[in-house]
C-alpha cells in the first residue's frame, strides 16, 4: 500500500472567510492510496466531518477542483466526484458564479437534541446492581458462587456435545427446549422437592429476566406489589420501572411479616429460603399465612429461590410452590447462575398451568427464547448427573468457607453478631455499641477488605447498622484473612 498523502493544508493557515475564495482549507486532509475506500469517498467523508463539526463554517467557499486536486496530488476527477456527492446530500451547495460553498446552518450545534436525545427522555439512572469488582484485596460480594469446584472436564464435554447437536434453522420453542425443561423439572424435584411437570417450566435468562417476563405476561399496569423490606434492590427496580406500586413489608428472622392486617395487592415477591439480604428463613406458619393472604386477595406470589440449594445447619422447608400444589398462586424462580457460574445466564420458572400461555407469549415477544447451544450444554450436564454432583461439591466448599468465616467472627460478640448463617452464600454482621456501618466499611476498604452495608438494599431508612458479607466467591483462606481484618477493625 502506498503511504498516505496529506495535503499541505494546515489548520494554522489562513481560514476561508464566508463568501470569500481561498486556495486553502482550515483542516488537514489525508488520503490513503490502496485503501478499499475510493479516494473521492475518503475526501468526501473528511469534508463532511469538517462541515458538520463547524470547522468549515456556513458560507465558506471551498477551493476549486483543480487547485485542491493539485494540493492533494490527485486527479481533478477525484475532487469533482467528492464535491458532487456532498452537493447531492446537501452538505455543500454549488452556485453559478460563486463556486462550491458550505450552506448556512450545516454544522451540528453542540448541546442540541442530537447530543441529548429527545427532550422527554428521562434522566439516566444507573442500574441498582454491584459494579465491577475492586482490583486486589478481599471482596465480600453477594451473588457470586465458587468456580474452583467446577468440573472443567465435564464442562468442556458439555459444550462439545452442544457443538455436535444438529444445527437448527429455527429459533426453537420460546418456553425452552423440551429436553431441558424435562431435565429442569426432574432437577427441582430432586433438589427442592417441588413436583412440576415439564410443560409447566419456562427457561429464562435468570431471575431478573424471569421477573421481567412475568411483568409483561400477567401483571396489569399499575398493580400493587408486596415487597420485602429490605430486599433485592434490582427486583424492586424492575417492578417500579414497569409502573407498579411497591408496598414495602418488614421482614424479621421468620421472613416476610404477613398477617391478617396485611394490605391487599395483586402480587407478593419473596425470597423465603434465604431472605435477601438479612438471610432469615420464612417459617412454616408464615408460609401458610402468605398463601392464605394470596387466596383471600386473589393474588399471585413470586418465590425467588435464588440460592436454595445451599443449606447448612437446618433441614429444608417445603417451597411455597409445593405447599400450594394445585392452588394456582405461586410462580417459582430458580437459577443455574448460583449453581454453576453466572455467565451461563440461565434460570427457569415454574408456574400454574393457566399462566403458561401468557408467559410463553411474553417470552416470545421479549427475545424469542433462550440460545439453543446453551440449552443443549446444560441438558447434557443435567441428564448426566454432573450438576447434582457439582451442587454437592459446592455445598461442601461453601460450608467450609462459611465455617471459617463464622469461627473468626464469633469472638466479636456481643459487639457484633452474625445472622442469616443457616443457608445461602452470604451472612449479615450486625453491629452494636454505637458502631456506624458506613464508617466501618470505609475503614475496611482502606485495609483492602470490601463489604457493603444493609441500607443499600432498603427503600426506607434503616436503623440497623449491618454489614452484608458475601462469601460465595472466597476461599477458606481468604475468608479467614478478611474476617481477621474485620475483627481487627471492630475490636477495641
Notes on the structure:
The chain has about 500 residues and is of the alpha/beta class. The protein folds into three domains: about 5-100, Winged helix-like DNA-binding domain superfamily/Winged helix DNA-binding domain (Arc Repressor Mutant, subunit A); about 140-145 and about 390-490, Aspartate Aminotransferase, domain 1, CATH 3.90.1150; about 150-385, Aspartate Aminotransferase, domain 2 (3-Layer(aba) Sandwich). It has 15 helices and 18 strands. The strands form five sheets. The protein has an eight-stranded mixed beta sheet, with helices on both faces. The chain has a four-stranded antiparallel beta sheet with strand order 14-15-18-17, with helices on one face. α8 links the parallel β7 (about 225-230) and β8. α1 (about 40-55) packs across α3, α7 (about 205-215) runs parallel beside α8 and α7 (about 205-215) crosses α11 (about 355-365). The model is unreliable at about 5-20 (pLDDT under 50).
Amino acid at each position: 500500500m502506498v503511504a498516505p498523502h496529506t495535503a499541505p493544508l494546515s489548520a494554522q493557515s489562513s481560514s476561508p472567510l464566508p463568501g470569500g475564495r481561498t486556495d486553502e482549507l482550515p483542516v488537514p486532509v489525508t488520503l490513503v492510496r490502496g485503501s478499499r475506500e475510493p479516494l473521492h469517498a475518503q475526501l468526501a467523508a473528511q469534508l463532511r466531518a469538517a462541515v458538520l463539526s463547524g470547522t468549515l463554517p456556513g458560507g465558506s467557499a471551498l477551493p476549486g477542483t483543480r487547485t485542491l486536486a493539485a494540493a492533494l496530488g490527485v486527479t481533478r476527477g477525484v475532487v469533482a466526484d467528492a464535491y458532487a456527492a456532498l452537493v447531492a446530500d446537501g452538505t455543500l451547495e454549488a452556485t453559478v458564479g460563486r463556486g462550491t460553498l458550505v450552506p448556512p446552518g450545516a454544522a451540528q450545534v453542540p448541546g442540541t437534541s442530537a447530543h441529548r436525545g429527545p427532550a422527554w427522555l428521562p434522566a439516566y439512572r444507573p442500574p441498582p446492581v454491584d459494579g465491577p469488582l475492586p482490583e486486589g484485596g478481599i471482596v465480600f460480594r453477594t451473588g457470586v458462587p465458587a468456580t474452583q469446584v467446577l468440573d472443567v472436564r465435564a464442562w468442556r464435554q458439555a459444550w462439545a456435545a452442544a457443538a455436535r447437536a444438529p444445527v437448527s434453522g429455527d429459533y426453537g420453542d420460546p418456553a425452552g427446549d423440551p429436553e431441558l425443561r424435562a431435565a429442569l423439572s426432574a432437577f427441582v424435584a430432586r433438589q427442592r422437592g417441588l413436583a412440576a411437570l415439564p410443560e409447566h417450566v419456562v427457561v429464562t435468562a435468570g431471575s431478573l429476566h424471569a421477573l421481567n417476563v412475568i411483568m409483561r405476561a400477567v401483571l396489569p399496569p399499575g398493580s400493587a406489589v408486596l415487597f420485602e423490606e429490605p430486599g433485592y434492590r434490582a427486583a424492586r427496580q424492575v417492578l417500579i420501572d414497569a409502573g407498579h406500586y411497591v408496598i414495602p413489608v418488614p421482614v424479621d428472622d421468620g421472613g416476610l411479616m404477613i398477617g391478617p392486617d396485611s394490605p391487599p395487592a395483586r402480587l407478593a415477591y419473596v425470597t423465603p429460603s434465604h431472605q435477601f439480604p438479612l438471610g432469615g428463613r420464612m417459617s412454616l406458619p408464615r408460609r401458610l399465612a402468605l398463601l392464605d393472604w394470596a387466596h383471600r386477595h386473589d393474588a399471585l406470589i413470586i418465590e425467588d429461590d435464588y440460592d436454595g440449594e445451599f443449606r447448612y445447619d437446618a433441614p429444608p422447608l417445603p417451597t411455597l410452590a409445593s405447599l400450594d400444589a394445585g392452588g394456582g398462586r405461586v410462580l417459582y424462580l430458580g437459577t443455574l447462575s448460583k449453581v454453576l457460574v453466572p455467565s451461563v445466564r440461565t434460570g427457569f420458572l415454574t408456574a400454574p398451568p393457566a399462566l403458561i400461555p401468557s408467559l410463553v407469549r411474553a417470552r416470545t415477544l421479549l427475545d424469542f427464547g433462550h440460545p439453543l447451544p446453551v440449552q443443549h450444554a446444560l441438558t447434557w450436564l443435567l441428564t448426566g448427573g454432573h450438576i447434582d454432583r457439582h451442587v454437592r461439591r459446592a455445598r461442601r466448599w461453601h460450608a467450609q468457607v462459611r465455617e471459617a468465616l463464622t469461627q473468626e467472627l464469633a469472638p466479636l460478640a456481643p459487639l457484633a453478631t452474625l445472622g442469616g448463617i443457616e443457608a445461602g452464600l452470604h451472612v449479615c454482621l450486625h453491629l452494636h455499641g454505637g458502631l456506624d456501618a458506613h464508617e466501618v466499611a470505609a475503614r475496611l476498604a482502606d485495609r483492602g477488605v470490601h463489604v457493603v452495608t444493609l441500607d443499600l438494599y432498603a427503600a426506607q431508612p434503616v436503623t440497623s447498622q449491618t454489614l452484608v458479607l458475601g462469601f460465595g466467591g472466597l476461599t477458606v483462606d481468604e475468608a479467614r484473612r478478611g474476617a481477621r481484618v474485620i475483627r481487627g477493625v471492630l475490636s477495641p
